[in-house]
Amino acid sequence: MGEGGRLAQGVRAYGLIAGMWIRSTMAYRASFAMTAVGSLVVTGLDFVGIMLMFSQVDALAGYALAEVAFLYGLSATSFGIADLALGSMERLGRRVRDGTLDTLLVRPAPVLAQVAADRFAPRRIGRVVQGLLVLGYALASLDIDWTAAKLLLMPVTLVSGAAIFCAVFVAGAAFQFVAQDASEVQNAFTYGGTTLLQYPPTVFAQELVRGVTFVLPLAFVNWLPASHVLGRPYPLELPGWVAFASPPVAVACCALAGLAWRAGLRSYRSTGS
């Protein structure tokens, strides 16, 4: 079977497994509604903390509240989409430790699709909604000189950012084949990464900004595209075209994450029990 056939098989398997969990969740609609609203409220407390900070200051490293809200909205929405799609990947280490990953290996479906869709949680849609609400507030508050390029950049940035976070989820899961108990390390780059991106790059040391630009390219999730939309100077004095580089960066990240996943899966030797 070629790459296209395996991809189609994986998407189909993911859809079937996720659909099963959605039907299971929707059997208790009131519970789903409460957990989704709870997720929205809990994640929203992050932005409430930022608003409280701005009640004491007029700007944060030169950025006004609406501009920080713009960064926050882009990051939170992109991460929310990735977390909804692949948030279950962090459970892989547990499966490796207790040997239950073996049951996935004997099924006629790609292991990555099975792990990603395992215990699919529709309640995570609350994080996406919360990010979109903050992004909507930012767009309503900012006086942006819209051009065709800026309008196109908005959806492209959200999709590319979600793909970059998805790649981080997969790469982190691949690392758990070796480390086994490394979910917190993975969370440091996923949940920690989105928290980092909620603040302006001018807050952080240049070495950290270089790291999340050239090593783990999270800056392409929002910092660089947002610099173009907001008319802000680019971090590290990078050229203007980097604002439009998120799609190829996302493709490269996904390709590297796929290679890491294959390497990790090949190295798996079960528990021996």
TrEMBL record:
Keywords, comma-separated and alphabetical: Membrane, Transmembrane, Transmembrane helix
Pfam families noted in UniProt: ABC2_membrane_6
Transcription regulation in keyword set: no
Signal peptide per UniProt: none
UniProt KW Ribosomal protein keyword: no
Transmembrane segments: 30-54, 60-86, 128-146, 152-175, 208-226, 238-261
Protein name: ABC-2 type transport system permease protein
Organism per entry: Streptomyces griseomycini
